[in-house]
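Human: Note token order:
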Amino acid sequence: MGRSKSKTTNQAKPGAMISPELHNLQTNYLQKILVAAVAVSTLVYLLVAYNSIVKNLWILLGIYSLAYIWLLVAAFNRKLTYTFRALSLLAVIYIIGMVSMSGTNQPGMGLLYLSTIAGLSGIFFRGSTSWVIFGFSLVSFLGVGVGLYLGILPLEFLNWTSESNFLTTWGVYIGVFTMLTSVLVTSIGSITKGLNTSLLSQKKLTDDLEQERTALEQRVEERTNQLQRRAAQLLTAGEIAREISSETELGALLNNSIYLIQKQFGFYHASIFLVDAQREYAVLQASTGEAGRQMLERNHRLKVGEQGLVGYATSTGLSRVASDVGEDAVHFQNPLLPYTRSEAALPLRVGEQIIGALDVQSMVSDAFTDEDMNVLQTIADQLAVAIEKTRLLEEFKNTVKRLDESSQQATRRDWQFHLRNARRQYAYRYRNTLIEPAIGRSEIADKALHEGQPVIQVNAGETADTSLVAVPIQLRGQTLGVIDLRINSPTVPKEVLELIQATTERLAVTLDNVRLLEQLQMRFAREHLVGNITSQIRSTSEVDGILQTAARELGVALGTSEVIVQLVSPREERDEHQEVS
């Protein structure tokens, strides 16, 4: 385990500060260069080996053989680390270069070898390592120069070119040139290819990022537009809710609501249908535009559960959308709305009861999204509650109106009965500190009684500083009488009129209370009289005595001159009826 870990660590060293992609690229370059070097160096090795054997240069043969074998191992043993293989290639080139320079008094091919080492080190390693190898090559070159200067070099046993034929020497030179050039060309070509691949990958990545950025901006813009649209719809729903919540008349509520819905959402057409009492038809109650006016005049209605999206919504209590009305079999084709392309019907629900439907239409296909339907359903629910509230309020007003009418009729009937039974006129005049019965009514009093409103005439008296005022006495919408006043003033101040009206209102209530009290007293007296007569009748135990007592007590109690009480047998009564018939 330790060996594997060490090996992995060594492999990572050259690329420790570089990306894995670049390290893989360097490894591929190295492999190609090693293969190219082996291919070309084989010919060079054979030529050098031949000359070494002919001239008995066994040390030179050993050095070249060792370098050649080392190069083969580095090229084809991929289990070796990247660093070891790269240094092996550089070491082989360095050894051959040093041998070439040490065997002659001219740098010759050795200079080319050392230059190649410096160039390859910049490809295989980081900048600092390549500069170190360059420095080492320079020192070696200078060392050879010092050796030549001091006469230590050249070493004859390393000079394979001496006394060699022209073809062999130039063959070796050509092989060395080809090997080093191929190494450099392969390196530069690989670098160029890798750089081109990297640039293409970078460009593709940049293009992909740009496309992704553009797509992301589009999604953000779409989402922003959706959020803005949703916010506008919610604000619209809130505005509609405020408008419909303040309306108390059903017709105005429906018309205002449908106008706001069409205006705020920009629909082609909008309508409100309410289910009739028999729950057979959804009847149009409010609609927009000229088409809506014509349909209202025709009393337009759709059969529940059978006609159109409105019939579906009022039957099932579910919303229904026709994204393309031309392909929707449920859509009701209305000739007054030829430009409809999509339609949505939403039920108006109050609890579990479906009271109608909200129908909206657009000139655009697929106009209604899920968010639109949610907002519209919220508006429909609010509208349904407002409609039901308005209905209940109108029913309550009608009930109150009927009660007021009944109360007025009862008040009129009771006072007519009371005044008829009184058999007298209730009229009094206050004049010169005296109270006296009044006879007849003035013109201004008759006018106040007829109009049911106070009547004022200024400067209407015998003198210019006199005003006349007549205020009707009213109770529950019924006029009971009138107060007729003569005021010694050219005008009637507002506070004086208000005082008279307040007094009149309390007078009416007081009169009615007294009337009720008199009725109770009369009823009590009647019940008391009935009780007395009944007790007298019960004091007698014979039929004749009972009849006599009843006749006497009724005559005394009612003040009549004659009372007859008699019993008739059933047969006699039947015979009398037959005779009459």
